[in-house]
Amino acid sequence: MNWTDLANAPIEQVVAWAGQQPWSGAMRACLQDADWHAEGDVWTHTQMVCAELSQIGEWADLLPQERTVLSFTALLHDVAKPLTTRLDPITGRTTSPKHAVKGEHVARGVLRGLGCPLVLREEIARMVRYHGRPAFLLERTDPASEVVRLSWMATNRLLFLIALADTRGRTTAETTRPEENLHLWRMVAEEQGCYTHPFRFANDQARFLFFREPSPSLHYAPHEQYKASVTMMSGLPGSGKDRWLAVHRPGTPVVSLDGIRNKLKIDPSDDQGAVIQAARERCRELLRAGASFAFNATNVIRQTRRRWIDLFADYGARIELVYIEPPLATVIKQNADRASAIPEAVIHRLAARVEPPTWGECHNLVQLEGAEATSR
């Protein structure tokens, strides 16, 4: 079955398809702590969660795409437990630390293989990552900021519903997710006006600052006067970043790691310290001069982007992130046609680690999949 078939299928049919996939086989073989999950293995729990979704009263009122998001989040929310499950030597209990974080990457790979559209895929992947957060709202020092932050990563209503199904989809009285906590999540999100849509910040700068250093007030309205604008490209080698800049930012100065690498005659497999240092200095020159420019590099890992964003933000720049993701076969072909091609094995390794940018990283986000672009 392809993505179109699965996205339009009843949840029971999707579960039947999933039951034939290798990743569900790994979930069947992964046992859980009997006190928390008396129902047994991860796949049994997953099927119970999927069954609970359609029993929730709000299910009938959801849009078809919302049902699709919830169905695939339910299927994949514990997909990484086989990779993370271990026996705690101190307590003797079976735990799966960071399974949701790892699950985001696994879910992204599964959905990419199915041909799930980029924006929808990332919504599901983030839902997998954050599916457990509503249960632990009381442990947060600032519950309001927690729901506001998550409203830009997922939809709080859908997070509430998946957490509710996750809680009910087990056969044990002991749970770390009492339903009262989940209803608190809903209440706080509704109070902040971000239960069904992202929190409305006063402006883009307020949102940008909140994700970097949360303000004491969610309604802080900073003055928007930027000293320069930086268009930061993100995408695998060969994805078409140079072409996009040539069409959409003609005449804009470009700081390109590939360009600096070629100028310094440094191979991509060699130490990149000199390349990074030269790029940072060129960025500083432009920022000090108040000149807008584009920064062109792979930038597919969140931590790598953060280091550059920190530099741009320190100089008061407005930051736009442009993420480009053609089909992987297209990327491989376009990369092979480049003068300085990256080995195909490296492309595959990078693709497995990709973390597309989010609205928490920038003032404006553009996501392009083939010829289509989506901005929020």
TrEMBL record:
Keyword Nucleotide-binding attributed: yes
Keyword flag Transcription regulation: no
Domain HD residues, every copy: 45-136
Gene3D superfamilies in the cross-refs: cca-adding enzyme, domain 2, P-loop containing nucleotide triphosphate hydrolases
Keywords of the record: Nucleotide-binding
SUPFAM superfamilies, per the entry: HD-domain/PDEase-like, P-loop containing nucleoside triphosphate hydrolases
Protein name (database record): HD domain protein
